[in-house]
Design goal:
By secondary structure, the protein is mainly α. The protein contains ten helices and no strands. The N terminus is likely disordered. InterPro entries: DNA-bd_HTH_TetR-type_CS, Homeodomain-like_sf, HTH-type_TetR-like_transc_reg, HTH_TetR, Tet_transcr_reg_TetR-rel_C_sf, TetR_C_Proteobacteria.
Length: about 220
């Protein structure tokens, strides 16, 4: 075999990973870490366990994320972003404000009232004091996005005269706290089952009705003034 033939059969050097390869690896690591964190908590899931689950070296894990705490933060924020992008409402054909709010409540709670998210919430609560930046990011990244969805619905209803609101954003914060955060927190604490079943849906409908009762225009009888 000639020297030229030998050269032609040598494998070429491996190129740098493409952006797509890097994103795929990151997604794979987060998926592996997510299951361990949700099952064992932050302290119970070691960097060695994450690397083994993802079939990478611990050096690769740290090179990509810097620390286990950063992996944990990335897992939680990725979970929130992935789900909220899938659930983000593009508009509703429902004719009245009550129906529009029920649609968005159903979308959020069918995702949040599950054993998986109850487990995530327990881990986050346990680490909130230890990682205050994570708690702040979750608040801004998840809670505030949901508030903005609801605020846009309420502002539209206010403009149509369905509601009378001085501050749609403040009203949306109350709605999300009552309708979404409260049942999610009860499920995480084990005070109610992590399921959006008929009983949970009926409770949410009552809460929405009470919320709207406080937001509708009040007609003053001039004869009583």
């Amino acid at each position: 075999m000639s020297d030229d033939e030998k050269k032609s059969r040598r494998p070429g050097k491996m190129g740098r990973p493409t952006t797509e390869d890097a994103l795929r690896l990151t997604s794979h690591i987060l998926k592996s870490a997510r299951e361990l964190f949700f099952q064992h908590g932050f302290d119970g899931a070691s960097a060695d366990m994450i690397a083994e689950q993802a079939r990478i070296s611990k050096r690769t894990l740290y090179a990509r994320f810097g620390s286990k705490a950063r992996v944990f933060e990335a897992v939680i924020l990725d979970e929130i972003d992935t789900q909220l992008r899938a659930l983000e409402p593009s508009g509703s054909d429902e004719p009245d404000i009550a129906s529009r709010l029920r649609v968005i409540a159903d979308r959020l709670l069918e995702w949040l009232l599950t054993p998986r998210i109850a487990s995530m919430e327990r881990v986050v609560i346990a680490q909130a004091v230890r990682f205050p930046a994570l708690a702040a990011n979750i608040h801004d990244f998840g809670y505030q996005r949901a508030v903005q969805w609801v605020a846009s619905i309420l502002a539209h209803a206010d403009a149509k005269g369905e509601l009378s609101l001085a501050d749609p954003v403040f009203a949306a914060e109350q709605f999300v706290t009552l309708v979404v955060v409260a049942p999610m927190r009860r499920a995480a604490l084990g005070l109610s089952p992590p399921a959006y079943d008929d009983a949970a849906r009926e409770r949410i409908l009552r809460v929405i009705d009470l919320f709207l009762d406080g937001c509708r225009p009040r007609h003053v009888d001039k004869g009583t003034m």
